[in-house]
Design brief:
It is globular, with a radius of gyration of 24 Å. It contains 21 helices and 14 strands. The two termini are 30 Å apart. The chain is an alpha/beta fold. The strands form four sheets. Strands 12-11-10-9-13-14 form a six-stranded mixed beta sheet. It binds FE2/S2 (inorganic) cluster (FES).
Amino acid sequence: MEKSDTKRLRSRDWFGKTGRDGLIYRSFMKNQGFPDDQFDGKPVIGICNTWSELTPCNAHLRDLAEAVKRGIWEAGGFPVEFPVMSTGETLMRPTAMLYRNLASMDVEESIRANPLDGVVLMCGCDKTTPSLVMGACSVDIPSIVLSGGPMLTGHFKGRKIGTTDVWRFAEEHKVGKLSDQEFREAEAAMCRSAGHCAVMGTASTMASMVEALGLSLPGNAAIPAADSRRKAMAHLTGRRIVEMVSEDLVLSKILTRKVFLNAIRINAAVGGSTNFIVHMMAIARRIGADLSLDDFDHYGSDIPLLVNLLPSGDHFMEDFYYAGGLPAVIAEMRELLDPEPITVNGKSLAENNQDVACYNRDVIGTLEKPFGASSGTAVVRGNLCPDGAVIKVSAASEHLLRHRGEAVVFESIEDYKERIDDPDLEVDENSVLVLKYVGPKGYPGMAEVGNMGLPEKLLKRGITDMVRISDGRMSGTAYGTVFLHVSPESWAGGNLALVENGDMIEVDVEARRLHLDVSDEELARRRASWTPPAHDFDRGYVNLYVNHVEQAHLGADMDFLVGKSGSHVKRESH
Ligand code: FES
């Protein structure tokens, strides 16, 4: 960067200061052994790292950050790595989603409070991507995402496996098809390298989302974590953020409505997770882009499924990368995408991906020969969900997309666990399983429990799918005819709270309908004696969350976090 440009560097408000404050800012940086010409007058680039040994999917990000630093140094910037709250999917209780908004607050305040001119967001496991992007949007300085990459494909008993197989293993173990020892062996085989889940689950969906939104360099989504090209991507990302600072390419110049619509189309083509909707809504509302739940149906539901990856298809992220990755999908979709929006490298998706080849048509299809006619998420409405509910059609069973059945109601996740395998439970394959109080406020945290496992007695009969309805989410690795994100949720007084055993429920995905066949008078009678189950979250973050979290169709962000405050720090330090 030219000397004449240095005046507009945000970091100069710290390191360019004279007097006592400037002395303190510079002096304490020097205790790390940096000569002052390294950070004084150069773009200071934060590396916002979700590395944590408690987030196994991101455990390699500390190492990967070194490659980012190389790129930043090379381009004339000054890298400073800092940790933020890391929301690991596998270990956090009750659900990592409860902490997405908290992590985003950490990210936002850490970026704004420090002398940063640009930031590299290092993400991987599911919630680590939206939490970082949401926080960065509320500050709106030049920002670029680097994903950690998927794990290598697992192998077990001569067949490829990934985290989608968790559900199959659990069901096979339940009915005795898999021994205790085999169950243990499968654990080691499933997660065999660094990286996040190796199917098109939520982490891969989020990595694809940031690439589709133009927030990462082309090709970022699919390079396996263990592949040396992931480090090269990190290096190039570090190099590019320094240029973005000199171009003042802030997030709000990239994240327009058009780019969100492109991302919806691309997510549909890759068969991405339903969690995409909640996170995209939250990101759009942070940056101020006009987006609604209906946009996901309108712009995504007629997009053909172009990617044959689990859980909707057969292959793994590693196969996806070797076939050409997201660039090959974008190249194939060229005529369906808006060519205008720019990405972090200043070029459009079309320019970035115009000469990309596909190397395996069994993994990435064509518009003429897709893997499914339509793959996006359908948004349904009715008296059970006036503000909407969603279903991933590509993961559902065709014969259940239009269905009428009697409700079998579970009043909580604990109630479900206690009774689902009871041989006396009155349930058959035509029943509709209903789970209450697993939404944003009700769980709290909107847990991934919507894809309730089927009753053991039906599994033993070979039944593999049933209609399931809840106000929760489902893992991106899961599948089934599962209606999710019912809004308003039961704990907030939605009609889902009023469903009783034996009520008839009608679903018709083509008509976008989810209806509880109970009269308004009867519902009013039930409502008169209804109160939400008591919560005992009377202090701390969870109390704040329950009182301020918005409903799923708005992105389940906190009401006071919607929007942005910019990067200006209003008060001087003293
Ligand atoms: Fe981290 Fe699946 S558990 S991505």
